[in-house]
Write a structure and sequence with these properties.
The structure holds two protein chains of two kinds. By secondary structure, chain A is mainly α. Chain A is built from three helices and no strands. The C terminus of chain B is likely disordered. Chain B has one domain.
Chain lengths: ~90, ~250
Amino acid sequence: MTALLAGLLLLVAATGTGVVLSRRPERQVMAMAANGLALALLFAALQAPDVAFSQLVVGTAAVPLLFLAVLASIRLHRPEERPGDRPEKGA
Amino acid sequence: MSRRARGILAAIAALALAPGALAVVRAMPPLGDHPLPYGDAVNRVAPAERAVSNMVTAVNFDLRGFDTLGEEVMLLAAVVGAVVVLRGARGEGVGDRPARCGSRPIPPRSDAVVLLCRMTAPLTLIYGLYVVLHAALTPGGGFQGGAIIGSGLVLVWLGEGYNAWRRMVPGVVLHALEGGGAGLYALAGFGAMLTGAAYLANMLPLGDWGSILSGGMIPVVNFGVGLAVSGAFGMLFLEFLEETREPEKGEEQ
């Protein structure tokens, strides 16, 4: 295993941990997009460019956008919840 | 359940799963090893018999073209289902005003965002078309290119705002792309049957290796997938962004 692959695997693990540790939904969406980008780089380094392409457009662009649209829609139809509210502990 | 109890439960579960995980890790083939014969077989067969240089495209659109038709119909069904659910809750009426959250004003887009989107959106759309058309030659293909075109449509929304986006990207065109692309794929299979061959058999002239039209039927069905996927992503984005729009009083909701 080369240093490039090792570094990318660590990057995937780090960004994946970031997804789990972010608590606010909109930050979590961005963390998920970063994780998708790290995965796309890993696939490209493993010589699977077609999979890297799919991962990049679906995992980094399409899915986060749909999540953000859903979050915006939830805010819109329940305006009494303020955007800065944190999710309940232990929920 | 308290935080402490959850931690203890997670530790017990991890300990119970550890031997199994360890056994799997020890039994895994080394990195880069490919003991199965299929990859080598495709590398041998596809350039010689189909004249294409992208083996993934050869597998997707020829060697297992019928499976890809199933995936295509699956995407069509998923997108149509999402559209039906969203419109069922919202009604079919569409408007051209962006959402407002309470009485909060909509912040104007910064000039930097508009400039960046005007530069990148056309390039993204053209690059998506390039990826669709070069499926037989270079990495990528109908699905990837179509999804890139969908991302380009979103850049138009980001740069030009909701109103201009709805004028430039009519829903009817996206519906036609989605249905027409999937139809092209299915009908191409029947076209092969007209010559007496099996469904989706590659009956067109193969062309030269390295040419954009190489692969016989592959460019045709790949173009169908490209159309359908760009339409599908466009429809999904359009319906989801429509959800963030606030209807005016008395308007269909």
